[in-house]
TrEMBL record:
<dbReference type="InterPro" id="IPR036623">
    <property type="entry name" value="Hemimethylated_DNA-bd_sf"/>
</dbReference>
<dbReference type="GO" id="GO:0003677">
    <property type="term" value="F:DNA binding"/>
</dbReference>
<dbReference type="InterPro" id="IPR036767">
    <property type="entry name" value="ApaG_sf"/>
</dbReference>
<dbReference type="GO" id="GO:0070987">
    <property type="term" value="P:error-free translesion synthesis"/>
</dbReference>
<comment type="function">
    <text>Involved in DNA damage tolerance by regulating translesion synthesis (TLS) of templates carrying DNA damage lesions such as 8oxoG and abasic sites. May act by stimulating activity of DNA polymerases involved in TLS, such as PRIMPOL and polymerase delta (POLD1).</text>
</comment>
<protein>
    <recommendedName>
        <fullName>Polymerase delta-interacting protein 2</fullName>
    </recommendedName>
</protein>
<keyword id="KW-0496">Mitochondrion</keyword>
<dbReference type="InterPro" id="IPR007474">
    <property type="entry name" value="ApaG_domain"/>
</dbReference>
<comment type="subunit">
    <text>Interacts with PCNA and POLD2. Interacts with SSBP1. Interacts with PRIMPOL; leading to enhance DNA polymerase activity of PRIMPOL. Interacts with POLH. Interacts with POLD1; leading to stimulate DNA polymerase activity of POLD1.</text>
</comment>
<dbReference type="GO" id="GO:0005634">
    <property type="term" value="C:nucleus"/>
</dbReference>
<keyword id="KW-0539">Nucleus</keyword>
<dbReference type="Pfam" id="PF08755">
    <property type="entry name" value="YccV-like"/>
</dbReference>
<dbReference type="InterPro" id="IPR011722">
    <property type="entry name" value="Hemimethylated_DNA-bd_dom"/>
</dbReference>
<feature type="domain" description="ApaG">
    <location>
        <begin position="237"/>
        <end position="362"/>
    </location>
</feature>
<keyword id="KW-0227">DNA damage</keyword>
<keyword id="KW-0597">Phosphoprotein</keyword>
<dbReference type="GO" id="GO:0006281">
    <property type="term" value="P:DNA repair"/>
</dbReference>
Amino acid sequence: MAACVIRRTLLSTFNKYNSVSRVLQHVSLNSRHNPSVSCSSCDLFNVQQKRFMSSRPEGKVLETVGVFEVPKQQGKYETGQLFLHSVFGYRGIVLFPWHARLYDRDVSPPAVESKPAEPPGAHGSKEVKGKTHTYYQVLIDTRDCPHISQRSQTEAVTFLANHDDSRALYAIPGLDYVSHEDILPYNSTDQVPIQHELFERFLQFKASKVPPFVPRDTLQAWQEKNHPWLELSDVHRETTENIRVTVIPFYMGMREAQNSNVYWWRYCIRLENMGEEVVQLRERHWRIFSLSGTLETVRGRGVVGREPVLSKEQPAFQYSSHVSLQAPSGHMWGSYRLERPNGTFFDVRIPPFSLESKKDDTPNGFLPGPFTSLA
């Protein structure tokens, strides 16, 4: 199987679930049900055949970026693997993999590890088993960030500053966490195929290697040094009325404030419209339970100041936020209220997830940049 990678200068969202001609001409990406990629311009049943392809549908300019490779059904992608994100369409490169426990409330996979008990009042008391799933830490091509900013935040990695200002949060632009099935691998002869300030600090080109981009010592040291706040360990997923919500929580560390300890977490959330009907997110409703015994309710319009529309053409929206507790652990769960075109509303469940602390080992002094303050 082979396919061709092309790129539109004005990037549109890459629709994973339908036949999309705007990004890959005549390429069907109905990979949720069939992971193969079909292309009317290429003989995709001939594994040896690989061709470039470009076109200009809808008057948009397309540019060739490389040649598709066969997506891996087993195993994992290595550091230096180039890819297109199958949902958001950006160019990226794999830095390193994470092995996460996926708690999927839509299926009952073979048990690998039991999910911790849910807090009182959390919806759905059924036990959910975790299965191991591969995610990747990746760099996003900065040329694509402006085109995906309305669908996905490009500052998915944040951390606490290790200095006197305990309220300061910092973000590293252009880093993301990508699920294995969202990787559409390709190769390129360009020695610097990804534009990002960290690319040449972390990777170097070696033509004899496959993939030809290998990690520098800087990347390995950065991963080891900042492992505590980069690590992805648990992923929670649930679907309500064709809207799938995926949550990835991260522990960020503890800070002292007003003679007490404050524990911080960030959480990345992706909403995906798996159906045909256009819907718009209008409200959020959170319940936050702390080990100290408090139960907080948070309601508000939209998320991160937006009320995203989820359509067949642009089915996904991804964002990050933060929460703090005056206890080392807790739980969060809730719902989103979405509106249909006819004006009716329905609620979508946010799967319960744990907020667990660990050894406070926040980053200090080894941040190769770029990063910006969110305080």
